[in-house]
Amino acid sequence: MRALAAAAGIAGLALIAGCAGTVPQLRPLSAASTASPSATAAAALPVFKAGSYSGIKPSAIGFSADSGNYVSGITWTEWTATEAIGRGTSDEDNCKPDCASGQNVNVETTITLSQPAGGIFTELVESRSGQYGTQEWQYPSNWALDAEPANYQPPATPHQGTVSPAASTAAGSAWSVVSEFYGDVETSDYRAAWDLLGPAVRSLDGTERAFARGYDCTGSQNLTENSDSGDTVTFALSATNTCDDAQQDYTGTATVAGGLITSDTITQTSGPS
């Protein structure tokens, strides 16, 4: 994990993430999405194919294994038998004052698909308004790594981490929400974890993508409830930092309202920072 301030938030509880981080695996197209009316109606049109996704109109496209080129929130204004044009945003290092200490900023990005062959588009032009400008991609030799379908909703996944047997598990309780959050993080279901955060906690990272990138080095976790009082729960967390092959320990307090974590404080107690 990267260094934490004395009181960081859950959304700020992140692992050492740098340019060499691993992009969290994007989700495959579900059977339900495959059979959707829109996909059926557009079956005759060329599709976008990358990694585990082959379908119409992806909402996000990932090009780089180090998280350096990921286009999200894509809205397609054109999708014909010969060309498709979509616009979204991608995050890139602004390299100010230098690339090592720069910050990620969102830049407007246009995706243009063309040259369909065998039912799929084979040429892609990515135009970013930032420093990287325009890049051209050709299928299959130089292409996107993966993509997400539009309107994707991840399936509910049970918590897979280790929690105290004595912990309360009542649906909707503060503890159940916190344990579900860390379970989603442990299984790399970052979208589901993001959906459990209230606006104030989300603001610590700003975007779902930045939140997910913060957990690049997260391994197994051991979460234990210490106490609870109404909507507030205190807990202990031990997490494996896979980048440093080390364990880091934390104590935390979280408040839950309406099924969302609305405020929290996380303090590191041991392990490398």
Defining traits:
273 residues, mainly beta, Nuclear Transport Factor 2, Chain: A, seven-stranded antiparallel beta sheet, elongated
The percent of residues in helical segments reads 10-25%
User: Which spans of ≥5 residues are poorly predicted at pLDDT below 50?
Assistant: 1-8, 12-42, 154-171
Q: pLDDT average, as an integer?
A: 76
Radius of gyration: 20 Å
Give the helix/strand layout:
Elements: H1 31-34, H2 37-41, E1 48-50, E2 53-55, E3 58-62, E4 70-79, E5 83-93, E6 104-117, E7 120-128, E8 134-138, E9 146-149, E10 162-163, H3 174-186, H4 190-194, H5 199-202, H6 208-213, E11 218-229, E12 232-241, E13 246-257, E14 260-270
Parallel strand pairs: 10-11
Antiparallel strand pairs: 1-2, 3-4, 3-9, 4-5, 5-6, 6-7, 7-8, 11-12, 12-13, 13-14
What would you say this structure looks like, in words?
The chain has 273 residues and is mainly β. The protein has 2 domains: 58-149; 162-270, Roll (Nuclear Transport Factor 2, Chain: A). The protein contains 6 helices and 14 strands. It has helices at residues 31-34, 37-41, 174-186, 190-194, 199-202, 208-213; strands at residues 48-50, 53-55, 58-62, 70-79, 83-93, 104-117, 120-128, 134-138, 146-149, 162-163, 218-229, 232-241, 246-257, 260-270. It has a 7-stranded antiparallel sheet with strand order 8-7-6-5-4-3-9, with no helix packed on it. Strands 10-11-12-13-14 form a 5-stranded mixed sheet.
